Structure prediction request, 326 residues.
Amino acid sequence: MAETKRIFTFLLRFIAFCTTLSAVIIMISSRQRATVLVFSFEAKYSDTPAFKYFVIVNAIVSIYGFLVLFLPPKSLLWRLVVALDAVFTILLTSSISAALAIAYVGEKGNPIAGWLPICDQVTKYCNQVKGALIVGFISVVLYMLLFLYSLHTALNPLLLEKS
Amino acid sequence: MAETKRIFTFLLRFIAFCTTLSAVIIMISSRQRATVLVFSFEAKYSDTPAFKYFVIVNAIVSIYGFLVLFLPPKSLLWRLVVALDAVFTILLTSSISAALAIAYVGEKGNPIAGWLPICDQVTKYCNQVKGALIVGFISVVLYMLLFLYSLHTALNPLLLEKS
Prediction:
């Protein structure tokens, strides 16, 4: 039973690692050159601080997720993992919220502020950003599950005594 | 000792309640009429979905924070509070990140997307939004502390046996 649970969380962590890494790759590779009237410009993630923040956080969580995969089951560091899962879940949530808020303005614009939607001009770029956000959202959900699971394991006094 | 800790967390929860409530009030009351060329417009929080989200989350957390103040110390619901603190910390983080991302565009603009900064036209509105975000940031930090504290209390087996 304990073995099944271990394999299950290992798989969950592996998928979470894949999603954060994919989010970074998709976001970084999103760039498109467009010409509006006489102005030519290149839309890329690094122009928007919120997208840069999204990439940095997902990259850090990818490295963390990769390292945790190789942590031995009996290691005392698993107690630290509860806290780190919490920190990284919060960071992922924060980064995807910021990126979503900006992507929403890119898609719909904000008429009162006079910010026009740009997705009609750079459709490919927008779709790629959307893809990165969807993958990022899956990773947030996975990290929330992982955090709840490690919290549950740590909170359960019976499991606590066994370890 | 236990009494001092209880008073301390009560105070922390009371301050957290005050900050979330203030964030709601400051954000809701932020509106300014401005005229640019021949166009007259009113900047208010409800034009921006990210600010609406910020207000809704802070209002929900205010109600939660108010109710928790009256929870008796021996109540079994304190175990639920650990989980709710986690959920609301994540929601607060998410809402302030989204609002910050939009406020940053309002202040600095985004030259590549052609979004002009609007804070020169509606300085009062911008300052009030900034105020709400600062108060909101304090409440995020307080809820993180409260969550860490309730997690610590729940994780500590000695405290667990005592309760």
